Amino acid sequence: MAKAKILTDLEESYNELVHKVSWPSKTDLANSTVIVMVASILMALVIWAVDAIISWGMENIIYRV
């Protein structure tokens, strides 16, 4: 009986994946990829800048003492 339940669940999952999920077009996918890449680069630059400022500040504090 448990095996029949698993098969039913798999069949329902497959049907939902094939018939109810809306997949993005290639254009939408490409646009989303570009947005994610740009956002990732911007975040990396912000983190780098914060790290550089904190490092500069710490070096000034350590070497002045």
From TrEMBL:
GO cellular component: plasma membrane
Membrane topology type: Single-pass membrane protein
Pfam families: SecE
Description of how the protein assembles with itself and partners: Component of the Sec protein translocase complex. Heterotrimer consisting of SecY, SecE and SecG subunits. The heterotrimers can form oligomers, although 1 heterotrimer is thought to be able to translocate proteins. Interacts with the ribosome. Interacts with SecDF, and other proteins may be involved. Interacts with SecA.
Signal peptide range: none
Source organism per UniProt: Sodaliphilus pleomorphus
Superkingdom of source: Bacteria
Gene (name only): secE
Transmembrane segments: 34-54
Protein name: Protein translocase subunit SecE
